[in-house]
Amino acid sequence: MISALIVGVLLIVKSIILPPSNFPKSIPTIPFYVSFLGAYTSMDQEEIYNYYMREKLEKYGAAKLYFASRWNIVIIEPELLLQLFKNENIYAKSGNQEKIPYSVLAQYTGENIISAHGEKWRLYRRVVASSVQFPNMEPIVENSKRFLDVLHQELINNSPIEIIDLLQRYTLANIGDSVLGVKFNTMEEKDTEIHKRIKHVKRQIFQPLYMNFPFLDKLPIASRMEARKEVAQFRSYFSNILKTCQNFGRETGASRLRQALDNNTLTEKEFTDNGIILMVAGHENPLLLLLSLFYIVAKYPEVQHKIRQENGDNEAPYLNSVICECLRMLPPLGQIINRRTTENVILGSNIRIPKGTYVGYNNFGTGRHRKIWGESADEFKPERWGKTPQEISRKYLEAKIKANLPAFHGRKRACLGEKFALEEVRVLIQTLLQMYQLSLDPNWVEKITPAGPICPLGLKIKFKKIEF
Ligand code: HEM
């Protein structure tokens, strides 16, 4: 009995320490403990990537990586990435609802337009894609003006402020007003119910221990059972908000979902799963990008100066090049592993991947790849994107097509909210820099997040009103 137990434990330990024997031999293995370093050391993702992953990934283009309770293949080489994006049926999308269905995270976002594959994905696209691709851009300008008013009230004695809360209010207001067609009022009021609830549920879900070992969510741990209950309550609260929203003569994300629910195109669960993901992806990802942009402009005064000089220029080429460079160096979603092979496949010329393997990509690694971006890959150089609006948009498009810049994913499954997200960050940065000079709080330690989505960690900014 005891020896059987010991053998069982040893087998579990082996399955964590070593990749499965049928995994490709032609690519290196990142040590299993690397994925845990962010949670248990003071290293951030850039340090972890540089020390433990970069050399291997830049040499081989892909590597074996232990992450979220299993061994995966992770890619940084654009040519390999394109194969992943193009062969949708071999590298089939398989989000958390399939990968870790028992987790609290999977319970939160369910099966949705981002995580689903095949017929289900096509169905969700038919229902919500138009509301994301053709949002009402008008409220963005109004929300950016409100942002300035709130900022003005919050600034006391020139003290630095942690800006994340206010930025989240801005991106929540935008996704509500422009895409979902639901008024969250987060720019009009502080501490709205929705904002408080989102922050609370996020704290419950994104706990390092359960992110690293999602199988622990299978156990009857009191705090996780409580988290499960709170996620269920949030889902029901949010679903009611979507159902009761008014359609002011314009089709919106919420009204499209409501129609699909009423005519039985979507089940109640599918309605909520898709509503939640539009709200989450639609405000969290732009929030991350804005945090990184605030960090960049605060760090480089000359960048602010050049953006200010473009005032009145609708094309704002320099600002666009700053955003491209920020997406390259600090892509909001640094690593995405959510495709599973549906058959045995050879990736590139010799990476033999068995059926049923999770394959993903490291956005951060592609953005810092020296073979693509040269020896200056770690330097912030917006000039690399060109000078004129035409040159910048051509280089940006080319980088996306070649998968040199996969920040918004690519091909058929590329992000639908890109245009909207870029517009809302542009408007806010332009509006803000006309009124304020930004600098980093000298006491803030320059670090990005240790794991998960990428942004500066606990960013604190000093704002100084510009005297005219
Ligand atoms: C800076 C902001 C954003 C970034 C960096 C970003 C990035 C991404 C990425 C990497 C994916 C692929 C995800 C995966 O495979 O798991 C994706 C998909 C998607 N994003 Fe975004 N996103 C952003 C903003 C938005 C916004 C504002 C919306 C609006 C609701 C949105 C809606 C979507 C949708 C619907 C998909 C799924 C597309 C499909 O598979 O058909 N995103 N995004």
From TrEMBL:
MF GO annotations: heme binding; iron ion binding; monooxygenase activity; NADPH dehydrogenase activity; oxidoreductase activity, acting on paired donors, with incorporation or reduction of molecular oxygen
Keyword set, alphabetical order: Heme, Iron, Metal-binding, Monooxygenase, Oxidoreductase, Signal
InterPro entries, sorted: Cyt_P450, Cyt_P450_E_grp-IV, Cyt_P450_sf, Cytochrome_P450_monoxygenase
Residue sites binding heme per the record: 415
Family assignment from sequence similarity: Belongs to the cytochrome P450 family.
PANTHER family per record: CYTOCHROME P450 (PTHR24305), CYTOCHROME P450-DIT2 (PTHR24305:SF223)
Name of the molecule in the record: Dityrosine monooxygenase
Annotated organism of origin: Scheffersomyces stipitis (strain ATCC 58785 / CBS 6054 / NBRC 10063 / NRRL Y-11545) (Yeast)
Classification of source organism: Eukaryota, Fungi, Dikarya, Ascomycota, Saccharomycotina
